Structure formats: C-alpha cells, structure tokens
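ugh ok fine here u go
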Amino acid sequence: MFSLRLVAAVVLILAALVRPDAALAQDADAQAFVSGIEDLPLMPGLTETAEGSLVFESAGGRFVEVYAVGDVSRSDVEGFYGESLPQLGWQKNGPTNFRRDNEVLVLEFISGQETAAPLTVRFALSPADG
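structure:
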C-alpha cells in the first residue's frame, strides 16, 4: 500500500503539472509538510510559525495545533486544501472542515479580511467525536 507521504508528493507533482508557474516559484517548498501532521502538505506561500504550536498525543488520539502565515488569500488556501486533502483520504465536511478515519482537521483564518496580508492559518487536528 502506498504511504500517505508518497501520495502527498504525487498530489504536489500533479499540481505542478496543472500550474507549472506556481511549481517553479515553490521548488524548495514542494516537500514541506505541517509539523505534527506528517501527511498534510504545507501550502506554498505559507510558512509555519514557532509560536502557538501544540502537539499532544493521548489514548484518545492526537491533538495538533499549528499556525502558518503567508501572503496568500483565504480563498487560495481553501482551494488548495479543498483539492488536495480529498486525494489524501480526507472527506470534506465544509469549506475548512475535513474528516479522515477518527480525526477531524479544521482550518481557521486569523486575519480579519479576505484580502488582508499576511494571512495566518490555524491547523487544528483532533479526534473525531463518535
């Protein structure tokens, strides 16, 4: 069976074929993943921040909170994850809510407006309820 990291790399390569201009601009970031969520690609244009990150694992599951910032729009972030996460096994439950197996991933946006730059994105992973 393919590893999720391999599938994520294939998704990024396919995205580069569709949008080669974006791939050239992000060659160093092509393999970046969100810390604590090893198979969640970090969207090109976003950079993780050191502050506020939390990774906690318990018998009930993982709790991960990571922040990333970049000069990107909310709609670009929603589009990137809306296209890439279902290919990695995540079911889309809303524009910024996803579920896979027994985990839920929520993306939240911390700047006040759609066009405000830079935009801060909060990735929150937690066990699914029931």
